[in-house]
Specification:
Blueprint (H helix, E strand, L loop, with lengths): L1 H16 L10 H15 L11 H14 L7 E6 L2 E8 L9 E6 L18 E3 L2 E3 L3 H20 L8 E6 L7 H9 L5 E4 L4 E4 L5 E10 L1 E10 L3 E2 L8 H14 L8 H10 L5 H12 L4 H8 L11 E9 L5 E2 L2 E10 L5 H12 L5 E4 L14 H14 L4 E7 L5 H6 L4 E3 L4 E3 L11 E3 L3 H14 L3
Parallel strand pairs: 3-6, 3-7, 7-17, 8-18, 9-16
Antiparallel strand pairs: 1-2, 2-6, 4-5, 5-19, 8-9, 10-14, 10-15, 11-13, 12-14
This protein binds zinc ion.
């Protein structure tokens, strides 16, 4: 009862602010279903390895979709190793139009119950927050998408183009299922990935801004190896494999890749500057105007939150060498992890690093796994308008702008198939509640209602 009263209040407030906009109509049944499905999905331990319950998550969503009007044959679950992927197709009225793909993932990062305050696989709502592994990344988003599609069917909506829900089963690990999904759906008009980015709440819980992602940096790992004949440590000689590798690592550590600006990051810096400290904000504006501005570059490179947005970064992450305390090393290896600015193949960055290492004895090998290089997706006006409109239904007047994600998501595989892909999760969260992949992961329950309104609006606008 108390919850219903609270919901009514939100509704009245919303209608007042948005002048009773038609699309902010109630989706109470869908809201309730989304929360219920999210809780059921969180209770399933869909973690890579023995006992992986991704197939059960897929079965849960399939049964909801079929009960909600999808043809049984149009919802397929394909097992892959210990996981699975799901494709649900809603046929549009115009078969000539390419499908709108809504993408998400059903797997979650491992969570050790002993480290958590609450059991990670028992969903709990406390103080307006839904706790559990996958609550923010991304079982609530999945549940919202499933429930929004069911709601649209219930309301009698008829899409012009096919709407395809594509849920992968190993986004957090090898992304094998995503690669298969992207190939199978390579004729898509675009992909809306309801994972990642989203809205920012200030410490008091007031919505500040919303970002959607149109690009991701390319993940790469390069293994550096130096070998030497070795010998007794009482009889040292040059070169020494460890010293050679160390010298190369120091040179790479001091190297800065040329700063870059894209259409997307220019839009980001211009809009995001006002939410930063005066110094960082000024640097963002200056960099957006001139990506060669030295002072701006120095400020943005000194800040871990911004250095990745102005170019490629590479950093040493692992080192290994020698075989005995009293022997000269025969082998030394290191891993350099790179986050590559969109538009550069991995091989080009490896070549640049080889040049910086400046020692032919250091052998480079691209050991990247589960990553493909992708370009930025275009800033399409239809997408920008649809996202902005959908957000403003729930959060009137909030700034909406694009960003480039630092990490890799399923979008990478779709972009690799040349399908424009956008990260568009509607969830708003405070910095102090951001625990995706971490302990005590949670998401505000108050997000459900505006997120449902958003998805219903967004999916309609881009499929009608
Ligand atoms: Zn995710």
């Amino acid at each position: 009862m108390r919850r219903m009263t609270a919901a009514t209040c939100v509704c009245v407030a919303l209608m007042t602010v948005s002048n009773g906009h038609a699309a902010s109509a109630n989706h109470d049944r869908a809201d309730a279903q989304a929360l219920d499905l999210a809780k059921q999905a969180i209770a399933l331990r869909s973690v890579r390895g023995p006992g992986n319950q991704v197939p059960q998550v897929a079965a849960l969503f399939k049964s909801a979709l079929v009960a909600g009007g999808f043809n049984e044959a149009d919802v397929t679950i394909t097992p892959v190793d210990d996981t699975a992927f799901l494709i649900a197709r809603w046929k549009g009225q115009d078969p000539k139009l390419k499908p709108l793909v809504i993408s998400g993932h059903m797997d979650v990062v491992e969570a050790k119950p002993a480290d958590w305050e609450r059991d990670p696989f028992t969903p709990v709502i406390e103080n307006g927050l839904l706790y559990g592994r996958g609550s923010s990344d991304m079982k609530l988003d999945d549940a919202l998408a499933v429930s929004a599609l069911i709601e649209l069917r219930r309301e009698g909506y008829k899409p012009r183009r096919d709407i395809v829900l594509a849920l992968s089963g190993d986004e957090e690990t090898t992304m094998t299922t995503t690669g298969q999904l992207a190939k199978e759906l390579s004729n898509a008009e675009m992909v809306l990935n309801v994972d990642g980015t989203g809205g920012q709440l200030d410490p008091a819980g007031k919505p500040q801004y919303f970002t959607w992602s149109g690009a991701e940096k390319t993940y790469a790992d390069f293994e550096l190896t130096v070998t030497s004949p070795g010998g007794h440590s009482s009889r040292p000689y040059d070169p020494n494999a460890i010293n050679q590798l160390a010298a190369a690592l120091v040179r790479i550590g001091q190297y800065k890749f040329k700063p870059e600006l894209s259409e997307l990051t220019r839009a980001y810096f211009t809009a995001a500057a006002r939410y930063e400290s005066p110094e960082v904000g000024a640097a963002m504006r200056a960099f957006a105007a001139d990506p060669a501005a030295p002072k701006a570059i120095a400020v943005l490179q000194a800040n871990p939150a911004t250095i990745g947005k102005i170019g490629t970064t590479c950093v040493a992450t692992m080192i290994n060498g020698g075989h005995a305390l009293n022997a000269l090393p025969q082998r030394a290896t290191a891993n350099i992890n790179c986050r590559i600015f969109p538009g550069h193949p991995r091989a080009q960055i490896m070549e640049e690093l080889q040049h910086v290492a400046a020692d032919p004895a250091v052998h480079f090998r691209d050991v990247s796994q589960g990553s493909v290089a992708t370009d930025a997706s275009p800033i399409r006006p239809d997408v920008v308008d649809a996202i902005t409109r959908a957000i403003h239904l729930g959060y009137p007047g909030v700034a909406v702008f694009p960003t480039m994600s630092a990490g890799a998501s399923d979008s990478m595989w779709f972009r690799n198939e040349h399908i424009p892909s956008y990260g568009v999760s509607p969830l708003f969260i405070k910095d102090s509640d951001r625990f995706a992949h971490g302990l005590n992961e949670r998401i505000p329950v108050g997000d459900v209602r505006p997120s449902m309104t958003y998805m219903v609006s967004l999916f309609t606008d881009l499929s009608k």
